[in-house]
């Protein structure tokens, strides 16, 4: 191994471990322009560059959140925005000891030849974009693959899983080359009517292919984080599994597929209620010790109460920060299985 690569590897390992430091997790605030518009619409706020900036500023300037938040994932626009005082967001976060990250995929697009299945795009030009993001202060990145379950149609197909695993592995290898920690996110969606057993099977097939592809592409396991879904029944399913069942199935599935060299697993919340997302993480950590840290990289489950409280009303900005702080503290406690309402 040459000295330059060794230095890069040390940095990757350090950042990956810092992101899953005890009691801390990641805030996903990387909604694309389309997704943040949906979120702002839901509370009656028009999505403009300024409302998007102000909403993110409220979250990022929350006093004390850094005790529970190790890193924040930003969207391209947000990475280039600044606080009211003119401090660029990456700098503002760093001054609080929070690591800035960046979403680098270009979204899930229809997979040609496979109706109703998707593949995530964004590999073209990624090497150059990563170099620019590193200049702007990003130390880790995220790429999300979207897998939907439809048992009647035989989805996900093996081909869809392979196409997404291949893209995730190429992204991860490019990130490591640039000295940026890749968060590898294969999300099996929870919006179908499938049982928890089907979700476990699909999550297994997905992770199996993702780790094979990562290995084949020479990705160093010590320098990545995995961001998976939990193993859970689809939202429309008749029988919803109880929280302990979800926690046990998720841990079983991860133990079968995720190498022990991976420093941490940071879950997405995927549409679970904020409290359930905390409860699931809490139980999983009570089931430990595990070979990896089990943490959070929540979007909606960290932000929903804050967004609702703020709803564009400046007089509510502080109350919104308190709501975000509360969720961050609850999830921080769930990191060690010590959460209670
Ligand atoms: P949710 O926690 O809202 O699923 O968002 C996490 C995320 O980053 C999805 O890509």
Tally of extended strands?
10
**Uncertain runs:** none
- In quaternary terms, these chains amount to single chain
* Largest sheet composition: 8 strands, parallel, barrel
Order of strands side by side in the largest beta sheet? 1-2-3-6-7-8-9-10
The fraction of residues in strands falls at: 5-15%
Mean pLDDT: 97
By DSSP (H or I, 4+ residues per run), the number of helices equals 12
H-E string: HEHHEHHEEEHEHEHEHEHEHH
Q: Give the CA-CA distance, first to last residue.
A: 49 Å
Tell me the structural class: alpha/beta
Helix content: 40-55%
Whole-number radius of gyration?
19 Å
Named once each, the bound ligands are: 1,3-dihydroxyacetonephosphate
Family: Belongs to the class I fructose-bisphosphate aldolase family.
Keywords: Glycolysis, Lyase
GO molecular function, one term: fructose-bisphosphate aldolase activity
Protein name: Fructose-bisphosphate aldolase
Note down, in words, how this protein is organized.
- Helix 7 packs across helix 8, helix 10 (274-286) packs antiparallel against helix 11 and helix 11 (300-310) packs antiparallel against helix 12 (317-334).
- The protein has an eight-stranded parallel β-barrel, surrounded by seven helices. Strands 4-5 form a two-stranded antiparallel sheet.
- It has helices at residues 3-19, 33-41, 49-60, 76-79, 89-95, 126-135, 158-177, 196-216, 243-257, 274-286, 300-310, 317-334; strands at 25-29, 69-74, 99-103, 108-110, 118-120, 140-147, 181-188, 225-226, 264-267, 293-298.
- The model has no long low-confidence stretch (mean pLDDT 97).
- Helix 7 links the parallel strand 6 and strand 7 (181-188).
- It has twelve helices and ten strands.
- By secondary structure, the protein is α/β, with parallel strands linked by helices.
- The structure holds 1,3-dihydroxyacetonephosphate (13P).
- 1,3-dihydroxyacetonephosphate binds next to helix 11.
């Amino acid at each position: 191994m040459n000295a330059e690569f060794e230095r890069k590897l040390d940095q990757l390992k350090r950042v990956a471990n810092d992101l899953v430091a005890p009691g801390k997790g990641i805030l996903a605030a990387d909604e694309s322009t389309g997704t943040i518009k949906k979120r702002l619409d839901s509370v009656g706020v028009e999505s403009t560059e300024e409302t998007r900036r102000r909403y993110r500023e409220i979250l990022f300037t929350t006093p004390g959140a850094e005790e529970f938040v190790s890193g924040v994932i930003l969207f391209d626009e947000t990475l280039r925005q600044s606080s009211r005082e003119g401090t660029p967001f990456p700098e503002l976060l760093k001054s609080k000891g929070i690591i800035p990250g960046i979403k680098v995929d270009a979204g899930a697009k229809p997979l040609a030849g496979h109706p109703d299945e998707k593949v995530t795009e964004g590999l073209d030009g990624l090497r150059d974009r990563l170099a620019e993001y590193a200049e702007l202060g990003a130390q880790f990145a995220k790429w999300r693959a979207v897998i939907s379950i439809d048992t009647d149609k035989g989805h996900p197909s093996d081909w869809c899983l392979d196409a997404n695993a291949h893209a995730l592995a190429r992204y991860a290898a490019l990130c490591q080359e640039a000295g940026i920690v890749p968060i590898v996110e294969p999300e099996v969606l929870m919006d179908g009517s499938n049982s928890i057993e089907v979700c476990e099977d699909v999550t297994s097939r997905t992770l199996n292919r993702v780790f094979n592809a990562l290995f084949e592409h020479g990705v160093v396991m010590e320098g990545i984080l995995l961001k998976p879904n939990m193993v859970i029944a689809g939202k429309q399913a008749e029988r919803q599994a109880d929280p302990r069942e979800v926690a046990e199935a998720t841990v079983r599935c991860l133990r079968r597929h995720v190498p022990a060299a991976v420093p941490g697993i940071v879950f997405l919340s995927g549409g679970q209620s904020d409290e359930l997302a905390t409860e699931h993480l809490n139980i999983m950590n009570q089931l430990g010790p595990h070979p990896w840290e089990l943490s959070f990289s929540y979007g909606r489950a960290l932000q929903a109460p804050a967004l609702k409280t703020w709803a564009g009303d400046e007089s509510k900005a502080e109350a919104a920060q308190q709501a975000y702080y509360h969720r961050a503290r609850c999830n921080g406690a769930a990191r060690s299985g010590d959460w209670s309402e």
